[in-house]
């Protein structure tokens, strides 16, 4: 393996989700399938190179989506999900409190399906 000139490497892979404004369930499922396939291939390659324990993958988005349609899709919302994966990540946990209800009268639901998170993503 070649030595790197820096301690850390960074790679950003943007995935356009502008279709989410008017996305159908089929479109969303296709995007998730694309992401899952890419992650599976990446993890397999990192394990094949025996470097998975030195890798951390962080998924982030600048905003979430409402849970209720505006008639043409969804709007910007709160409560976006983020995840972290890597060989040394002690995963399988949810930080914050998962909503007990997605009902419009839930104490964490604002108008038009905007879910208020219990915990900031930076936590």
Describe the protein in words.
- The protein has one helix spanning 25-48; strands at 56-59, 64-65, 76-77, 83-86.
- The longest helix has 24 residues, at 25-48.
- It has one helix and four strands, in the order αββββ.
- Helix content is 20%, strand content 10%.
In summary, what is this structure?
This protein is α+β, with helices and mostly antiparallel strands and 123 residues long. The radius of gyration is 18 Å and the shape is elongated.
Number of distinct helices: 1
Strand order of the largest sheet: 1-4
How much is the average pLDDT?
79
Radius of gyration: 18 Å
- Report the order of strands and helices: HEEEE
Helix content: 10-25%
What proportion of the residues form beta strands (DSSP E)? 5-15%
Please provide the count of β strands. 4
Contiguous runs where pLDDT drops below 50 for at least 5 residues: none
**Which secondary-structure class do the elements indicate?**
alpha+beta
* Largest sheet descriptor: 2 strands, antiparallel
Judging from the principal axes of the Cα atoms, what is the shape?
elongated
Distance between the termini: 35 Å
Key traits:
alpha+beta, two-stranded antiparallel sheet, single chain, 123 residues, 4 strands, 1 helix, two-stranded antiparallel ribbon, 10% strand
What's the structural blueprint in terms of helices and strands?
Blueprint: H1 25-48, E1 56-59, E2 64-65, E3 76-77, E4 83-86
Antiparallel strand pairs: 1-4, 2-3
């Amino acid at each position: 393996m070649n030595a790197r000139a820096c301690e850390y490497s960074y790679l950003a892979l943007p995935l356009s989700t502008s279709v989410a404004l008017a996305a159908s369930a089929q479109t969303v499922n296709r995007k998730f399938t694309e992401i899952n396939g890419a992650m599976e291939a990446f993890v397999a390659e990192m394990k094949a190179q025996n470097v998975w324990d030195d890798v951390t993958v962080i998924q982030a988005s600048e905003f979430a989506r409402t849970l209720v349609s505006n008639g043409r899709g969804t709007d910007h919302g709160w409560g976006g999900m983020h995840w972290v994966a890597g060989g040394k990540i002690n995963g399988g946990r949810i930080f914050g409190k998962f909503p007990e209800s997605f009902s419009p009268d839930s104490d964490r639901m604002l108008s038009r399906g905007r879910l208020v998170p219990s915990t900031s993503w930076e936590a």
